[in-house]
Specification:
It contains 13 helices and no strands. It is mainly alpha-helical. The chain has 2 domains: 1-54, no CATH class; 60-312, Growth Hormone, Chain: A. It is a multi-pass membrane protein. It comes from Penicillium roqueforti (strain FM164).
Amino acid sequence: MVLFVVGSTATIAPLSWGGVLYPWRAWQTYVPLTIGPLLLGVLAFHEYRTEIPMFPHRILAGTTPACCMIGSLIHGLITAAVIYILPLYFQGVQQESPIKSAISAFPFSFLAVPSGSIAAFLVTACSQYNWIMWTGWITISLGVGSMSLLGLQSSRSLQFGLQVPGGIGVGVLYTIIAIPLQATMHVDDVGLAVGTLVFFRLTGQIIGLAISAAIFSNTYTTRASRWENLPAIAEQFRDGSAAVYAIGKLSSLDGYPLVKDKILETYAVSLHYVWIALAVLAPVGLLTSLFIGCKPLKNDEIGRQGFADIRLQEQNI
């Protein structure tokens, strides 16, 4: 457990501050980024050799379980990044209040609930899950890719409409990814396997927040370094690490419309690169889903409860 906590922290933390608090070449960044994966490698070796591993290797044995775990990690990464980036777009680029930005980002979150329910119904009705999973990955790929079109002059209908495919894809994958894993596992391992799947999704969410924040801050800082002849009041917007916190001060630039438009455009371009990164990553999840086998969903296993023995005894009586 100590190896896992220290290794994961040492891996994720420098991803969030690289290029923001410290340069990528600074020892504060590359030393923990080197030690972290090494510790996780030691943990993997220890888990493989120990008799009672924290993550039993039988849970990850086979193509389907491994692909489900990778897909869950990517799904969590994209979901957390979108939930973080969308309100930032509406507040930083469209200059909306926090409450209004939450309302503007509502279509993405709202569509995830019914789409997940519909996906579960389709699995029950069709006794198939592969094509539903592929549909989820395709829609989430199209969703995050199309969100890269969001800019300073985007219409209201475009802002809402581009959230639709991403919200549907996220909801579908929340439900579907666990199903092939459950169908593959022995009945006694289903609970542990699903718990491990949730762990991978939560890990992906942490990585997604760290990576999206790093991409945004680094892009913003790079573009802000090219600004020239800024008034003194606008100098506070040069720091990419403080760009998110400076959103509330954008109203102080109302007297400098050209400068304000330049800063808003920098926000939009920085977010654009985050969308591009997510759009590149989403097809990787689709690729992993192609290797997930189609197992029968009906299972006569009763676990260790012994109900079958009781029924046999009753019949003999």
